[in-house]
Amino acid sequence: MYESYRGIKVTPMESGRMTELLTEKVRKVVSEPEKVEEVVRSIKSEYITIDTTPLLGESDGSSWTGPYGQFKSVQELLNTIYFALPPDRIKPYTYGKSWMIRGPSR
């Protein structure tokens, strides 16, 4: 578990595992099976997945998924990501130079 400077707790979890857990919980409260996927999709639209594998490599990188609404600003999201990275690998003030956030690869 990572914790940002403001105390936001981020638990590494693969996106696929998060979807499985979410679907399991939705099935418990949604009585119509055909609505489960729709509800899961709606909830997931409020989440962001951060994958540090392209930056740190397969052995050191990780992926976590969490609600982006927990961050008060983009700066807070960036700070949370930065402080979760190994300090010996990423220098301060290098966002946009040596690392950045981008959309999902297709």
Question: pLDDT average, as an integer?
Answer: 79
**β-sheet strand percentage:** 5-15%
Helices and strands: which structural class?
alpha+beta
As residue ranges, the low-confidence spans are 1-6
- Over the alpha carbons, how many angstroms does the gyration radius reach? 16 Å
* Major sheet: arrangement of strands: 1-2
What's the end-to-end separation, in Å? 28 Å
Number of domains: 1
Query: What's the quaternary structure here?
Result: single chain
- The H-and-E topology, N to C, reads as EEHHEHEH
Number of helices: 4
| Biggest β-sheet description | 2 strands, antiparallel
Q: Quick one: how many beta strands?
A: 4
Structure description:
The chain is α+β, with helices and mostly antiparallel strands. It contains 4 helices and 4 strands. It has helices spanning 15-29, 33-44, 53-56, 74-84; strands at 2-3, 9-10, 47-51, 63-67. The strands form 2 sheets. A two-stranded antiparallel ribbon has the order 1-2. A two-stranded antiparallel sheet has the order 3-4. Strand 1 (2-3) and strand 2 form a beta hairpin. The radius of gyration is 16 Å and the shape is elongated.
SSE topology sketch:
Layout lengths: L1 E2 L5 E2 L4 H15 L3 H12 L2 E5 L1 H4 L6 E5 L6 H11 L22
Antiparallel strand pairs: 1-2, 3-4
Key structural traits:
106 residues; two-stranded antiparallel ribbon
Structure summarized in a few sentences:
By secondary structure, the chain is an alpha+beta fold.
